[in-house]
Automatic annotation (TrEMBL):
Provenance organism: Candidatus Scalindua rubra
Protein name: LPP20 lipoprotein
Length: 454
């Protein structure tokens, strides 16, 4: 049996062993042969804090690697992608961490509150890995670049090869996305080239030869009938006095003035025409503009590209065209019956309010029911309530119905009952109730009517 003094002595030794803090916790090690990463977290009941400490250490390690990125490289990357300095460095840091291999755990230490971990990575091993990855990336990119050149040379016989050439050029950038502004030297066709520069130059040349043309650059679009309007744009490639339609080219559409919903991306068909489509359009602006452009991001959308590559592609000038849209609001025929205590109002209250609200939203009104897109019917009347101490109460009931004149269907119906007005006479109380009910129609009924008439 171990005696009690012996147990106490062993516990004291164990406590001292745990409590002794290694030097790397208080002073960061400096080692010319290794990149260093140290992580620390607050301890918790869950063991997840161990993984968190490791992540922090690898973040720290990758920061030590990327701290020496040249400002010239960053400047080149900014120019190509349009990103700012912090975004570029953050992207480089993220990519570096994702590519880390061969790191080793040196030590761990913990007390009652914190958990520390120390990792390192051999600089020579890292450099070997980087060079091998770079070589593999260059070889893959160069192979795609060669395929792009082959497609480019056959453009005069088949318009589809233009799209294929662009696709290969964009795909050739994907293996190089981690090398940012690095020009990457290699050999092509017996000559030394800077691969990234050559890809960009070739891509920009082929894009400069493509022309997008809006088939109908000016369109009248009626709200509610927007889905019938096609945004047709043709794509042609012109070089050496020859012209060919470009098929399967991804064309994106978006509003640059106004607002609405579009089919965002359409590929050109066998005739080199993309048939874009307006799904809905806001009636608030009479003159709107839609821009169409060749969308390079469509060539890599399924490959989970880096933020840098996406921005670089978006920053490349591509062929564009525009549509000018003249928005025509739906025409409305409005009939309104408004009576106060059995007498028709000489000056209607609800009708002008509804007209003002809808006119502000781009709708127009007509006296010709046959030409109207919708008919709004208002039926309202007031009735006497009670009188207390010279205060008279009158109630107003309103029913509003909206009919689609194209289909003959009632698309909306609602009512407001027992809207109370209090004044010095029943007649004045009725007018007060009418004023209040018109406000409620503006705030509650009109938005529902607009939704129904879309």
């Amino acid at each position: 049996m171990i005696k009690k003094p012996t147990i106490i002595f062993l516990l004291m030794l164990f406590s001292l062993a745990i409590g002794k803090q290694p030097s790397w916790v208080t002073k960061r090690p400096i080692d010319k042969a290794y990149f260093i990463g140290i992580g620390v977290v607050k301890k918790s009941n869950s063991k997840e804090y161990i993984q968190s400490a490791k992540n922090n250490a690898l973040n720290d390690l990758s920061s030590e690697i990327t701290v020496n990125i040249s400002s010239e490289l960053v400047d080149i990357s900014i120019e190509k992608s349009g990103m700012n300095n912090d975004e570029i460095r953050s992207e480089i840091h993220t990519t570096t961490k994702a590519d880390l291999e061969g790191y080793e755990l040196v030590d761990t230490w913990e007390n009652d509150y914190e958990y520390w971990v120390y990792y390192r990575l051999s600089k020579s091993l890292y450099q070997t890995q980087i060079e091998l990855k770079k070589e593999n990336s260059i070889n893959l990119s160069l192979d795609l670049f060669k395929k792009a050149k082959e497609k480019e040379q056959n453009w005069a016989t088949k318009g589809a090869t233009i799209n294929s050439a662009i696709e290969y050029y964009v795909q050739a950038l994907k293996p190089l996305e981690s090398y940012y502004g690095d020009p990457l030297e290699t050999f092509y066709d017996g000559k030394k080239i800077f691969l990234q520069n050559e890809i960009f130059t070739s891509l920009q040349w082929i894009l400069s030869k493509i022309k997008l043309k809006a088939v109908t650059p000016k369109l009248d679009v009626k709200v509610g009938n927007s889905i019938e309007n096609k945004l047709q744009v043709s794509a042609t490639f012109f070089s050496d006095g020859k012209e060919v339609s470009v098929t399967n080219l991804p064309i994106s559409f978006h509003f640059i003035k106004g607002n609405g919903e579009l089919v965002k991306t359409i590929n050109t068909n066998s005739k080199g025409v993309a048939n874009g489509q307006i799904i809905s359009i806001s009636p608030l602006e009479k003159l709107q503009m839609i821009k169409c452009s060749l969308d390079l991001t469509q060539y890599i959308s399924e490959d989970n590209p880096s933020y840098y590559l996406l921005n670089t592609l978006k920053n490349i000038n591509t062929p564009t065209s525009k549509f000018i849209i003249n928005v025509i609001g739906p025409s409305v025929y409005l009939e309104s019956y408004e009576s106060n205590l059995g007498n028709l109002l000489s000056v209607k209250i609800i009708e002008p309010k509804i007209k003002n609200y809808l006119t502000e939203k781009g709708y127009s009104f007509t006296d010709d029911i046959a030409s109207a897109d919708a008919m709004i019917s208002i039926n309202s009347e007031s009735r006497e309530g009670s009188e207390i101490y010279g205060q008279y109460v009158t109630f107003v009931d309103v029913t509003i119905s909206v009919m689609d004149m194209n289909s003959g269907e009632e698309i909306y119906k609602n009512s407001i009952q027992n809207k109370k007005g209090i004044q010095l006479s029943f007649e004045k109380a009725g007018l007060k109730a009418y004023q209040d009910v018109s406000k409620e129609i503006g705030s509650n009924i009109i938005p529902e009517i607009l939704e129904a008439m879309k």
